[in-house]
Amino acid sequence: MDITRVAVIGTGTMGSGIAQTIAVAGIPVTMVDREQTIVDRAQQTIERQLRRGVERGRMSQDDAGVALSLIDTDISVDAAADADLVIEAVPEVQSMKNDIFARLDEVCRPDAILASNTSSISITSLGAATARPQRVIGMHFFNPVPLMELVEVVRGLQTTDDVVDTVVAFAGRLGKTPVAVNDFPGFISNRVLMPMINEAIFCLMEGVASAEAIDNVMRLGMKHPMGPLALADLIGLDVCLDILVVLQRDLGEDKYRPCPLLRKMVAAGRLGRKAHEGFYRYE
To answer: Which of 117, 120, 152, 198 is catalytic?
Structure first.
Protein backbone atom coordinates (compact mmCIF):
# COMPACT_ATOMS: atom_id res chain seq x y z
CA MET A 1 0.00 0.00 0.00
CA ASP A 2 1.32 3.44 -0.94
CA ILE A 3 0.84 6.17 1.67
CA THR A 4 -0.11 9.34 -0.23
CA ARG A 5 -2.18 11.23 2.34
CA VAL A 6 -1.95 11.27 6.13
CA ALA A 7 -4.08 12.67 8.95
CA VAL A 8 -2.72 13.46 12.42
CA ILE A 9 -5.21 13.56 15.28
CA GLY A 10 -3.97 15.82 18.09
CA THR A 11 -1.82 18.90 17.47
CA GLY A 12 0.22 19.27 20.63
CA THR A 13 4.00 19.10 20.70
CA MET A 14 4.12 15.59 19.25
CA GLY A 15 1.24 15.91 16.80
CA SER A 16 2.48 19.16 15.27
CA GLY A 17 6.01 17.75 15.07
CA ILE A 18 4.76 14.64 13.29
CA ALA A 19 2.71 16.72 10.84
CA GLN A 20 5.70 18.98 10.14
CA THR A 21 7.95 15.98 9.48
CA ILE A 22 5.42 14.44 7.08
CA ALA A 23 4.98 17.71 5.15
CA VAL A 24 8.74 18.26 4.89
CA ALA A 25 8.94 14.78 3.34
CA GLY A 26 6.56 16.01 0.61
CA ILE A 27 3.43 14.16 1.77
CA PRO A 28 0.07 15.95 2.21
CA VAL A 29 -1.14 15.90 5.83
CA THR A 30 -4.23 17.09 7.66
CA MET A 31 -3.91 18.16 11.31
CA VAL A 32 -7.05 17.66 13.42
CA ASP A 33 -7.86 18.91 16.90
CA ARG A 34 -10.98 19.77 18.86
CA GLU A 35 -10.81 23.58 18.57
CA GLN A 36 -9.72 25.93 15.80
CA THR A 37 -7.57 27.97 18.18
CA ILE A 38 -5.56 24.84 19.08
CA VAL A 39 -5.05 23.94 15.42
CA ASP A 40 -4.07 27.52 14.58
CA ARG A 41 -1.50 27.51 17.38
CA ALA A 42 0.00 24.28 16.00
CA GLN A 43 0.16 25.80 12.52
CA GLN A 44 1.98 28.84 13.92
CA THR A 45 4.43 26.56 15.73
CA ILE A 46 5.22 24.72 12.50
CA GLU A 47 5.67 28.01 10.62
CA ARG A 48 8.08 29.18 13.32
CA GLN A 49 10.05 25.92 13.23
CA LEU A 50 10.33 25.98 9.44
CA ARG A 51 11.44 29.62 9.50
CA ARG A 52 14.12 28.67 12.01
CA GLY A 53 15.20 25.83 9.74
CA VAL A 54 15.63 28.28 6.86
CA GLU A 55 17.59 30.71 9.05
CA ARG A 56 19.93 27.90 10.12
CA GLY A 57 20.47 26.65 6.59
CA ARG A 58 18.70 23.33 7.09
CA MET A 59 16.27 23.98 4.20
CA SER A 60 15.55 26.56 1.53
CA GLN A 61 12.76 29.10 1.68
CA ASP A 62 11.10 27.35 -1.26
CA ASP A 63 11.18 23.97 0.52
CA ALA A 64 9.66 25.53 3.63
CA GLY A 65 6.90 27.07 1.52
CA VAL A 66 6.14 23.75 -0.16
CA ALA A 67 5.93 22.01 3.24
CA LEU A 68 3.47 24.60 4.54
CA SER A 69 1.32 24.24 1.43
CA LEU A 70 0.96 20.49 2.13
CA ILE A 71 -0.59 21.02 5.59
CA ASP A 72 -4.39 21.30 5.98
CA THR A 73 -6.23 21.76 9.26
CA ASP A 74 -9.64 20.71 10.55
CA ILE A 75 -11.59 20.35 13.79
CA SER A 76 -13.44 17.14 12.91
CA VAL A 77 -12.15 13.58 12.84
CA ASP A 78 -14.25 13.21 9.69
CA ALA A 79 -11.41 15.01 7.87
CA ALA A 80 -9.44 11.74 8.12
CA ALA A 81 -11.92 9.94 5.86
CA ASP A 82 -9.67 9.97 2.79
CA ALA A 83 -6.35 9.33 4.55
CA ASP A 84 -4.29 6.23 3.83
CA LEU A 85 -2.72 6.49 7.28
CA VAL A 86 -4.05 8.18 10.41
CA ILE A 87 -1.70 8.86 13.33
CA GLU A 88 -3.30 9.54 16.70
CA ALA A 89 -1.22 11.79 18.96
CA VAL A 90 -3.50 12.78 21.85
CA PRO A 91 -2.57 12.57 25.59
CA GLU A 92 -1.83 9.21 27.20
CA VAL A 93 -5.40 8.54 28.34
CA GLN A 94 -6.70 5.11 27.35
CA SER A 95 -10.38 6.07 27.26
CA MET A 96 -9.69 9.08 25.05
CA LYS A 97 -7.62 7.02 22.62
CA ASN A 98 -10.24 4.24 22.53
CA ASP A 99 -12.95 6.76 21.63
CA ILE A 100 -10.82 8.22 18.84
CA PHE A 101 -9.99 4.80 17.38
CA ALA A 102 -13.64 3.76 17.47
CA ARG A 103 -14.60 6.96 15.64
CA LEU A 104 -11.78 6.58 13.09
CA ASP A 105 -12.94 3.03 12.42
CA GLU A 106 -16.32 4.47 11.42
CA VAL A 107 -15.11 7.29 9.15
CA CYS A 108 -11.94 5.91 7.55
CA ARG A 109 -11.71 3.67 4.49
CA PRO A 110 -11.57 -0.06 5.28
CA ASP A 111 -8.01 -0.28 3.94
CA ALA A 112 -6.72 2.72 5.95
CA ILE A 113 -4.06 2.07 8.58
CA LEU A 114 -4.74 3.46 12.07
CA ALA A 115 -1.60 4.23 14.07
CA SER A 116 -0.98 5.55 17.57
CA ASN A 117 1.93 7.63 18.80
CA THR A 118 1.37 6.22 22.28
CA SER A 119 4.50 5.72 24.36
CA SER A 120 3.09 3.04 26.66
CA ILE A 121 -0.54 2.04 26.00
CA SER A 122 -1.21 -1.35 24.46
CA ILE A 123 -1.64 -1.31 20.69
CA THR A 124 -3.64 -4.53 20.98
CA SER A 125 -6.14 -2.81 23.31
CA LEU A 126 -6.48 0.13 20.90
CA GLY A 127 -7.05 -2.30 18.05
CA ALA A 128 -9.84 -3.91 20.06
CA ALA A 129 -11.73 -0.60 19.94
CA THR A 130 -12.08 -1.11 16.18
CA ALA A 131 -13.35 -3.69 13.74
CA ARG A 132 -9.93 -3.71 12.04
CA PRO A 133 -7.37 -4.70 14.71
CA GLN A 134 -5.19 -6.17 11.95
CA ARG A 135 -4.69 -2.63 10.57
CA VAL A 136 -3.88 -0.95 13.91
CA ILE A 137 -0.23 -0.29 14.73
CA GLY A 138 2.02 1.87 16.91
CA MET A 139 4.24 4.64 15.56
CA HIS A 140 6.11 5.96 18.59
CA PHE A 141 7.97 9.12 17.57
CA PHE A 142 10.37 10.95 19.88
CA ASN A 143 10.55 14.61 20.91
CA PRO A 144 11.52 16.79 19.11
CA VAL A 145 10.06 14.84 16.21
CA PRO A 146 11.75 16.73 13.32
CA LEU A 147 15.20 16.06 14.81
CA MET A 148 14.95 12.63 16.47
CA GLU A 149 15.76 9.72 14.15
CA LEU A 150 13.97 6.82 15.87
CA VAL A 151 10.42 5.56 15.35
CA GLU A 152 9.33 2.50 17.34
CA VAL A 153 6.95 0.57 15.09
CA VAL A 154 4.79 -1.47 17.46
CA ARG A 155 3.02 -4.60 16.27
CA GLY A 156 -0.23 -5.41 18.07
CA LEU A 157 -1.31 -9.01 18.59
CA GLN A 158 -3.34 -9.00 15.35
CA THR A 159 -1.35 -6.49 13.25
CA THR A 160 -0.55 -8.05 9.88
CA ASP A 161 2.89 -8.28 8.30
CA ASP A 162 1.90 -6.08 5.35
CA VAL A 163 0.79 -3.27 7.68
CA VAL A 164 4.10 -3.48 9.57
CA ASP A 165 6.03 -3.46 6.29
CA THR A 166 4.04 -0.47 5.00
CA VAL A 167 4.60 1.58 8.15
CA VAL A 168 8.31 0.68 8.33
CA ALA A 169 8.70 1.85 4.72
CA PHE A 170 6.73 5.04 5.45
CA ALA A 171 8.94 5.87 8.44
CA GLY A 172 11.92 5.48 6.14
CA ARG A 173 10.39 7.98 3.71
CA LEU A 174 10.30 10.47 6.60
CA GLY A 175 14.05 10.07 7.06
CA LYS A 176 13.58 8.10 10.27
CA THR A 177 15.09 4.82 11.42
CA PRO A 178 12.20 2.44 12.20
CA VAL A 179 12.68 -0.29 14.82
CA ALA A 180 9.98 -2.96 14.91
CA VAL A 181 8.97 -4.14 18.39
CA ASN A 182 6.18 -6.25 19.84
CA ASP A 183 3.35 -4.96 21.99
CA PHE A 184 4.52 -4.95 25.61
CA PRO A 185 4.02 -2.16 28.19
CA GLY A 186 6.50 0.64 27.52
CA PHE A 187 7.76 -1.18 24.40
CA ILE A 188 11.59 -0.93 24.50
CA SER A 189 12.29 2.77 24.95
CA ASN A 190 10.18 3.60 27.98
CA ARG A 191 10.53 0.23 29.65
CA VAL A 192 14.27 0.94 29.86
CA LEU A 193 14.23 4.74 30.16
CA MET A 194 11.50 5.40 32.72
CA PRO A 195 12.98 3.30 35.55
CA MET A 196 16.22 5.29 35.14
CA ILE A 197 14.38 8.62 35.29
CA ASN A 198 12.32 7.40 38.24
CA GLU A 199 15.43 6.30 40.15
CA ALA A 200 17.05 9.69 39.50
CA ILE A 201 13.98 11.35 41.05
CA PHE A 202 14.23 9.02 44.06
CA CYS A 203 17.90 10.07 44.44
CA LEU A 204 16.84 13.71 44.44
CA MET A 205 13.98 13.12 46.89
CA GLU A 206 16.23 11.19 49.28
CA GLY A 207 18.89 13.92 49.25
CA VAL A 208 21.60 11.84 47.60
CA ALA A 209 22.61 14.85 45.49
CA SER A 210 21.27 17.94 43.76
CA ALA A 211 19.49 17.77 40.40
CA GLU A 212 22.56 19.24 38.71
CA ALA A 213 24.87 16.67 40.31
CA ILE A 214 22.66 13.74 39.34
CA ASP A 215 22.47 14.91 35.75
CA ASN A 216 26.20 15.63 35.57
CA VAL A 217 27.04 12.11 36.70
CA MET A 218 24.94 10.64 33.91
CA ARG A 219 26.17 13.11 31.29
CA LEU A 220 29.85 13.01 32.10
CA GLY A 221 30.18 9.50 33.51
CA MET A 222 27.77 7.66 31.21
CA LYS A 223 28.08 9.96 28.17
CA HIS A 224 24.35 10.62 28.00
CA PRO A 225 23.59 13.76 25.93
CA MET A 226 21.46 15.10 28.80
CA GLY A 227 20.80 14.02 32.35
CA PRO A 228 17.68 12.06 33.34
CA LEU A 229 16.08 14.95 35.23
CA ALA A 230 16.59 17.42 32.37
CA LEU A 231 15.23 14.75 30.02
CA ALA A 232 12.17 14.28 32.24
CA ASP A 233 11.55 18.03 32.02
CA LEU A 234 11.77 17.82 28.23
CA ILE A 235 9.40 14.85 28.01
CA GLY A 236 6.95 16.35 30.53
CA LEU A 237 6.66 15.12 34.10
CA ASP A 238 2.98 14.34 33.61
CA VAL A 239 3.85 12.11 30.65
CA CYS A 240 6.56 10.35 32.70
CA LEU A 241 4.05 9.74 35.49
CA ASP A 242 1.43 8.37 33.08
CA ILE A 243 3.95 5.95 31.57
CA LEU A 244 5.17 4.71 34.95
CA VAL A 245 1.57 4.14 36.08
CA VAL A 246 0.95 2.01 32.98
CA LEU A 247 4.20 0.08 33.48
CA GLN A 248 3.44 -0.68 37.13
CA ARG A 249 -0.16 -1.64 36.40
CA ASP A 250 0.44 -3.80 33.34
CA LEU A 251 3.70 -5.47 34.41
CA GLY A 252 2.68 -5.72 38.08
CA GLU A 253 6.14 -4.93 39.45
CA ASP A 254 6.95 -2.41 42.19
CA LYS A 255 10.20 -1.40 40.47
CA TYR A 256 8.02 0.81 38.24
CA ARG A 257 6.30 2.52 41.21
CA PRO A 258 6.34 6.30 40.50
CA CYS A 259 8.44 8.29 42.96
CA PRO A 260 6.26 10.30 45.39
CA LEU A 261 8.20 13.45 44.44
CA LEU A 262 7.17 12.97 40.82
CA ARG A 263 3.52 12.70 41.83
CA LYS A 264 3.86 15.81 43.99
CA MET A 265 5.44 17.88 41.23
CA VAL A 266 2.76 16.89 38.72
CA ALA A 267 0.04 17.78 41.24
CA ALA A 268 1.69 21.18 41.70
CA GLY A 269 1.73 21.82 37.95
CA ARG A 270 5.53 21.71 37.71
CA LEU A 271 5.49 19.69 34.51
CA GLY A 272 8.87 20.64 33.03
CA ARG A 273 9.74 22.81 30.05
CA LYS A 274 6.15 23.24 28.85
CA ALA A 275 5.22 24.74 32.23
CA HIS A 276 8.53 26.67 32.48
CA GLU A 277 9.35 24.81 35.70
CA GLY A 278 10.16 21.23 36.60
CA PHE A 279 13.41 20.04 38.12
CA TYR A 280 14.84 23.22 36.57
CA ARG A 281 13.39 26.64 35.73
CA TYR A 282 13.02 27.73 32.11
CA GLU A 283 12.52 31.18 30.66
So the answer is: 152
